[in-house]
Design a protein that fits this description.
It is built from 13 helices and 20 strands. The protein is of the alpha/beta class. The protein has a 10-stranded mixed sheet with strand order 9-7-5-2-10-1-11-15-19-20, with helices on both faces. Strands 14, 16, 17 and 18 form a 4-stranded mixed sheet that branches. Strands 3-4 form a two-stranded antiparallel ribbon. A hairpin with a 7-residue loop joins strand 19 and strand 20. Helix 3 crosses helix 4. The longest helix is centred in the middle third of the chain and has 14 residues. The two termini are 17 Å apart. The protein binds inosinic acid. The site of inosinic acid has 21 residues, from helix 4 and strand 10.
């Protein structure tokens, strides 16, 4: 069955690990949105790989990996990622890049940084990788797509237009049109064999009943339309966007797997009702290694929030759940799970769309006893401490859905399936 894997918090849920784990039983792994703002960490034996663009299925020799049309691609980052993998002996020949994907060019990064500076007291805390400005160009129909790179005249014309249009930003920079053109064209040429109409690859696979994993990036609360706007990314991260971002019919998206952490984290600014400031938050951050894969920024940490999870289940049609990083909670005597918010004396359990409510809402918690046991040696659900089982049962009871995969460590084998 085809599976869409989406994060159902604010990103960094461990989608990369779960994708890598499930990829062994699939044929094709497709990224359908975002760019190198994403960071997926995969641990294989002694080695730790950090992927920003390439799907987490690349570590299997015979799987096809696709960068879909809904993505924005920084060719320099992609080339480096491919080279780094090659240097580790990993085959990247089965990687295909959609010719419709838009490019992130050096001036997009510059604009992203400048705009963050201008926002002064009200920063979004973007990853400064040029994601927003590249999507702006796409939406305003002047973006540069990969397909444009193979026609020098078209690429030159578009680049000239951008240099003129973005003059105010560019005049203080040391970016040079000729240099950008040459570098980008050189990389594009080196990848030419792998640039394709990826919808044809996917249609053929679907006809042959091959299994496809659609690997989401970021999380539902960073979705441009349904997240905590404006503190969101610049594209849709919702499960439904797998169809538009990859170019497949929506009815082929059958299993919608929501990945969430045993607690909550968020990078960048924006509301976060269950955030824990102080030593407990610091403890989770250190133990969970909660530092951005792309930017290295410390992630804000908090208790699990069922209000956002219920919302994510509803709007994505999640029919399967994977929980990650349960091991990080070992050693905490007391755990809390928010099941509703209080706002102006009233209890609310539906996701508020109004940012003001988000900022003022106070979480209402269920307190549960924690557990001491290190989960490192555990191989099955039955072996988990009773308190951990109760923690999971409380979540399942509230979400009305079974957690099918439980991750208790970064390695592939630290995964319990039920
Ligand atoms: P942008 O996607 O770089 O424009 O950043 C917009 C917001 O999304 C910021 O709050 C980022 O921290 C957040 N964000 C973007 N990508 C990720 C991710 O992969 N994990 C977590 N947060 C992310």
């Amino acid at each position: 069955m085809n599976t869409v894997i989406v994060g159902i918090q604010w990103g960094d849920e461990g989608k990369g690990k779960i994708t890598d784990f499930l990829a062994k039983d699939s044929d094709i792994i497709v990224r359908f949105s975002g760019g190198n703002n994403a960071g997926h960490t995969i641990v294989l034996g002694e080695k730790k790989f950090k992927l920003h663009l390439i799907p987490s299925g690349i570590f299997y020799e015979n799987k096809i990996c696709v960068l879909g049309s809904g993505m924005v691609i920084n060719l320099e980052v992609l080339k480096k990622e491919i080279n780094d993998l090659k240097n580790e002996g990993i085959n990247t020949k089965n990687l295909y890049i959609s010719e419709n994907a838009h490019l992130i060019l050096p001036y997009h990064i510059l604009i992203d940084q400048k705009q963050e500076e201008l926002r002064a007291g009200d920063k979004l805390g973007t990853t400064c990788q040029g994601i927003g400005p590249a999507y702006v160009d796409k939406v305003s129909r002047r973006g540069i797509r990969l397909i444009d790179m193979f026609d020098e005249e078209t690429f030159s014309e578009k680049l000239k237009y951008h240099f003129k249009e973005k003059e105010t930003y560019l005049k203080e920079s040391n970016l040079i049109l000729k240099e950008i053109k040459e570098t980008q064209m050189e990389i594009a040429q080196s990848l030419k064999e792998q640039v394709a109409d990826t919808t044809l690859i996917l249609s053929k696979a679907l006809k042959e009943n091959k299994k496809i994993i659609f690997e989401g990036a970021q999380g539902i609360l960073l979705d441009l339309d349904f997240g905590t706007y404006p503190y969101v990314t610049s594209c849709n991260t919702l499960a439904g966007s797998a169809a538009t971002g990859a170019g497949v019919p929506p009815y082929v998206l059958r299993k919608i797997l929501g990945v969430f952490k045993a607690y909550t984290t968020r990078v960048g600014t924006g509301p976060f009702p269950t955030e824990i400031k102080g030593i407990i938050g610091d403890y989770i951050r250190e133990k969970g290694g909660e530092f951005g894969t792309t930017t290295g920024r410390p992630r804000r940490c908090g208790f699990l929030d069922l209000v956002i999870l219920k919302y994510a289940l509803r709007i994505n049609g999640i029919n399967s759940l994977a929980l990650t990083k349960l091991d990080v909670l070992s050693g905490m005597s007391n755990l809390k799970i928010a099941y509703a918010y209080r706002y102006k004396g009233k209890e609310i359990d539906e996701f508020p769309q109004n940012l003001k409510i988000w900022n003022e809402a106070e979480p209402i918690y269920k307190e549960l006893p924690g557990w001491e046991k290190d989960l490192n040696k555990i191989n099955s659900f039955e072996e988990l401490p009773e308190e951990a089982k109760n923690y999971l049962k409380f979540i399942e009871g509230n979400l009305n859905l079974k957690i099918e995969i439980i991750s208790i460590g970064a390695e592939r084998n630290k995964t319990i399936t039920r």
